[in-house]
Amino acid sequence: MIGFDHGMTVLLSTPGVGDLDEVVRALAEWRREGAPMQLHPGDVGYYWQFGPERTAAALRTWRREGRLVGVGLIDGPELVRLAILPEAHDDEELALQMVDDVTRPDRGVLSAGKAHVEALWQGRFREVLQEGGWEPDDPWIPMIRDLSEPVSDGGLRIEVVGSELVDDRVTVHRSAFEGSKFDARRWHAMAAGTPYADARCLLGFNDRGDAVAATTVWSAGPGRPGLLEPLGVHRDHRGRGYGKAIAVAAAAALRDMGASSATVCAEASNTAAVTTYRSAGYQPRPAVRDLRRVG
User: Fold this and answer.
1) Which of 13, 83, 143, 237 lies at a C-alpha separation of 20 to 30 Å from 109?
2) Mean per-residue pLDDT for 264-273?
């Protein structure tokens, strides 16, 4: 672990590979029903496709007296996605220190110029950033499906992806997300990661046996909200209800894993995605926005 202590009681660090399990456990413990969405262990799990060393290098942690109180995932040079200890939403010291760390390029979180911060909770951190001139970015819609009741069949044959289905999984993903470089090597790296022990990769097949839709679901443990990341439909099979069906299957899988709810966040501008999730029983919550600094 590389530290950046300048006499502060809140210490910013870059974790090592040996610290990843602790970070994932903390993110899972911080996911609580009814709490605002924030960085999920599944987000780290999906990033694990790049391997544990690169995953550790992309993470930042904030500690107070050795205890994790904040985690950031640097998802490209202009974006950091954050989570904090739920009890610390109004923690002045933590907010001030995290703002200092994410806004100063020399702190090793974001580079100078244009930048985005994903911090979806209300509290002092967002307030301090906006007082410093950061602006709300485009809206996202958190969507949640309660899993207290059984989930009916979505009408699509679903298989849990293992080694024998990886090629089909990759084909659907690359068709659904234009420009994606996801491949079998990345899938195996993701599946070897610690968070994937609480995950399942689902592949949906139509009546002809074609692989038409896919998603990966991530649990944060029994009684906690689970996550869909990502979900996509093969471009040749869109408009036939397969997105709804795989979203229903995702909810069913998460319920089987003990999750209290299935959660996903869709761009408000992506009306097709929002409509699909709503049709699958995911209820929209008030829009949330990242914060941006214009370069």
Assistant:
1) 143
2) 96
Mean pLDDT over 204-218 rounds to 98
* CB crowding 210-230: b at 16 or more within 10 Å, else e: ebbbbbbbbbbbeebbbbbbe
- Is 90 exceeded by the pLDDT of residue 93? yes
Return the H-helix or E-strand segment holding 246. Answer: helix 242-256
Residue 1's pLDDT band (cuts 50, 70, 90): low
Handedness of CA 99, 104, 110, 111 (dihedral sign): positive
Q: What is the dihedral of CA 94, 122, 32, 8, to 10 degrees?
A: 0
Mean pLDDT, the chain, rounded, equals 95
Decide: helix, strand or coil at residue 293.
strand
84, containing H or E segment: strand 79-84
Asked if residue 73 lies in contact with residue 80, where contact means CB atoms within 8 angstroms, the answer is: yes
Whole-angstrom distance, CA of residue 79 vs CA of residue 117: 6
The amino acid at residue 272 is A
Short-list 214, 201, 158, CA closest to 45: 201
Among residues 215, 197, 207, the alpha carbon closest in space to that of 251 is found at 215
Residue 140, strand partner residues: 267, 288
What the chain holds in terms of domains, given with CATH numbers, is 2-139 (3.40.630.30), 145-288 (3.40.630.30)
CA angle (91 as vertex; 1, 114 as ends), nearest 5:
65
Query: 227, 42 in Cβ contact below 8 A?
Result: yes
The answer to whether the peptide bond before residue 230 is cis (omega within 30 degrees of 0) is: yes
Does the pLDDT of residue 5 top 60, yes or no? no
Residue 113: phi, psi to the nearest 5? Answer: 90, -150
Nearest to 218 by CA among 258, 175, 167: 258
pLDDT exceeds 90 at position 47: yes
pLDDT at 106 over 60: yes
Q: Rounded to whole angstroms, how far apart are CA atoms 157 and 77?
A: 39
